[in-house]
Design a protein that fits this description.
This protein has 650 residues and is an alpha/beta fold. The chain contains 21 helices and 29 strands. The chain binds 5'-O-[(S)-ethoxy(hydroxy)phosphoryl]adenosine (WTA).
Length: 650
């Protein structure tokens, strides 16, 4: 982020304390909770762990051998039992667990009782196909209730799931299946997106050509009708056929607190996606307590998180957190602008949504579309708003506050990561006075700091690296099959301290202001992408000799992909090739990684040691004066490139 923006941020003077009315009804409103948690964070987290049902209580709260933490050691529990069975034993049996709206407009409601039945049946299906405790199951599904059923059924039998976002390409799916050595794949014939069919089964078939660990494929029929997908004899099985004969009961498997609950792949600084591991006890405690306190969910509420289940936000705050506390979660399958730009507001009005959790990129798009869309609908049911995924600019925050929240809803700007599993920096809406653009304060029992290059805490107002100095229950237990990389990426900059990869500042009041990534990860419309992964996709094209990718500031998406490309002798740098390269990246990784700009160049700015200076490429792409070029091997390269870029833009 540019310095000017940072300074503007820190001059933000507006403060929004929670209303008395909100405080009175809040799940947590006593500020002494912060002090209590800092005094003895192990005792605090042990108290939080009471939010779950345990078959056996832990004997030790925490064992901390950086970079590895173990929480609630000796504890036995089952995540599915906590998300489903225990509610069925109460009046919640007939409470809606999931309310689903399909993009074409279908509606389904699954009560906790329904979920209990479906999950048990599907767990039996998994068992009948040979899935055992510890086997990895890959899930590549649209946003339908069956994705939740599949995840919970895996958790029930102790088979870690690895959900792959439905927008990822076949090749991305192959990589993730192979890394996890998944035994079974659960997919669907397709899903709906802006009126088009996302061909999930077709992608899965392509992916499976190079993924020999998969023995069986379960296909949920989402589209049906005339939409036919080939089924491979002996490998592919229909969800509905398997479910028709599945026995109704399946006991949950008692799991150890530290048993793997799931893997979720995310992009890092290096080309290869990382399999983030989350275990059962600590993760579930962390997501359950944050869901209850940050979103202030009550039994009567309808809570809607607009993320896709394929990202960590969906895992923690559509599935595990809300269901663990017996909430009603809404799921919507499709796009916010289909059939029109008021779809979200139509859904809020129709179901009387009380709590809405979405991303700044969506808010900026709504802002651009104009307030006439929310104005068409009665949004008076809303009581709390949340954001996640990237820094929210104060203008977007204010727009959300006024045009969606009607000026009355607290906004919780929640900072966290796939690796952190749970929200770590956030307001507590019944306690914290919010400031537009700040994620405010650490959640109780969480210890972030901002360090300079030497590892000293920065004074207020000075930017630095955001770190966490103590463990928290939902922290990742590492990268699947790659302990060295785990150590190197997160724990080598400051020994014993978790390095987030984000820049941040604190103000005089101790509020945290997130400043974006400091590594080669970019954040495009709230989706985390690795510049190196996109570069690898580009050089995989026969015309490309070398490529450098950066995130360029974008009004709505936050960042957009810009690729600087050197092409090989014999190819023509023309519009056709440019389109072909964009398409190539989309096909290799997924549409989210498609570059907005492809800039052909004869050379790239490099240091004398041969490292591409991405900072200068960002300056060029964002039209800024060039920064320091003295370390460049050949300063003329960057000047020429700048002129060329400016020429291409016109
Ligand atoms: C960014 C998403 C500022 C950050 C839950 C982080 C944020 C990355 C915020 C993780 C926020 C997430 N304010 N930045 N409220 N929330 N980020 O793993 O750069 O997809 O490191 O997890 O998103 O992205 P991930």
């Amino acid at each position: 982020m540019e310095t000017t923006t940072i300074e503007a941020l820190l001059q933000e003077q507006r403060v929004f304390p929670p209303s008395e009315e909100f405080v009175r009804q809040a799940n947590v409103s006593d500020p002494s909770i912060y002090e209590e948690a800092s005094r003895d964070y192990e005792a605090f987290w042990a108290k939080c762990a009471e939010i779950l049902d345990w078959y056996e209580r832990w004997h030790t709260v925490l064992e901390w051998n950086p970079p590895y933490a173990k929480w609630f050691i000796g504890g036995k529990l089952n995540a599915c039992y906590n998300c489903v069975d225990r509610h069925v034993k109460t009046w919640r049996r007939n409470k809606a667990a999931l309310i689903w709206e399909g993009e074409p407009g279908e509606e389904r409601v699954l009560t906790y009782g329904d979920l209990h039945r479906e999950v048990q049946k599907f767990a039996n299906v998994l068992k009948s196909l040979g899935v055992r405790k510890g086997d990895r199951v890959c899930i590549y599904m649209p946003m339908v209730p069956e994705v939740v059923i599949a995840m919970l059924a895996c958790a029930r039998i102790g088979a870690p799931h690895s959900v792959v976002f439905g927008g990822f390409s076949a090749e991305s799916l192959t990589d993730r299946i192979n890394d996890a050595q998944a035994k079974l794949l659960i997919t669907a014939d397709g899903g709906w997106r802006r009126g088009n069919i996302v061909p999930l089964k077709r992608n899965a078939d392509d992916a499976l050509r190079n993924a020999p660990s998969i023995e069986k494929v379960i296909v949920f029929q989402r589209i049906g009708g005339d939409y036919m997908v080939p089924m491979q004899e002996g490998r592919d099985l229909w969800w509905h056929e398997l479910m028709a004969n599945a026995p109704l009961t399946c006991e949950p498997e008692p799991m150890d607190s530290e048993d793997l609950l799931y893997l979720l792949y995310t992009s890092g600084s290096t080309g290869k996606p990382k399999g983030i591991m989350h275990t059962t006890g600590g993760y579930l405690v962390g997501v359950a307590i944050t869901t209850k306190w940050v979103f202030d969910i009550k039994d009567e509420d309808i809570y809607w998180c607009t993320a896709d289940v394929g990202w960590v936000t969906g895992h923690s705050y559509i599935v595990y957190g809300p269901l663990a506390i017996g909430a009603t979660a809404l799921m919507y399958e499709g796009a916010p602008d289909y059939p029109d730009r008021d779809r979200f507001w139509a859904i809020v009005e129709k179901y009387r949504v009380n709590i809405l959790y979405t991303a700044p990129t969506a808010i900026r798009a709504f802002m651009k579309w104009g307030e006439q869309y929310p104005q068409r609908h009665d949004l008076s049911s809303l009581r709390l708003l949340g954001t996640v995924g990237e820094p929210i600019n104060p203008e977007a925050w204010m727009w959300y506050h006024e045009h969606i929240g009607g000026g009355r809803c607290p906004i919780v700007d929640t900072w966290w990561q796939t690796e952190t599993g749970m929200i770590l920096i956030t307001p507590l809406p019944g306690i914290t006075a919010t400031k537009p653009g700040s994620a405010t304060k650490p959640f109780p029992g969480v210890f972030p700091d901002i360090l300079d290059e030497q590892g000293n805490p920065t004074p207020p107002g000075r930017g630095g690296y955001l770190v966490l100095t103590r463990p928290w229950p939902a922290m990742t237990r590492g990268l699947y099959g790659d302990p060295e990389r785990f150590q190197q990426i997160y724990w080598s900059k400051y020994p014993g301290i978790y390095f987030t990869g984000d820049g941040a500042k604190r103000d005089e009041d101790g509020y945290f202001w997130l400043l974006g990534r400091v590594d080669d990860v970019i954040n495009v419309a709230g989706h985390r992408l690795s510049t190196m992964e996109i570069e690898s996709a580009l050089v995989d094209h026969p015309a490309v000799a070398e490529a450098a990718v950066i995130g360029k500031h974008h009004e709505i998406k936050g960042q957009a992909v810009a690729a600087f490309v050197i092409i090989k002798e014999g190819y023509r740098a023309d519009e056709q090739l440019r389109e072909e390269l964009k398409q190539h990246v989309a096909a290799k990784i997924g549409a989210i990684a498609r570059p907005d700009d492809v800039i052909f160049t004869a050379d790239l700015p490099k240091t004398r040691s041969g490292k591409i200076m991405r900072r200068l490429l960002r300056d060029i792409a964002e039209g800024r004066a060039l920064g320091d070029t003295t370390t460049l091997a050949d300063p003329a390269v960057v000047q020429a490139l700048k002129e060329k870029y400016e020429g291409q833009e016109e």
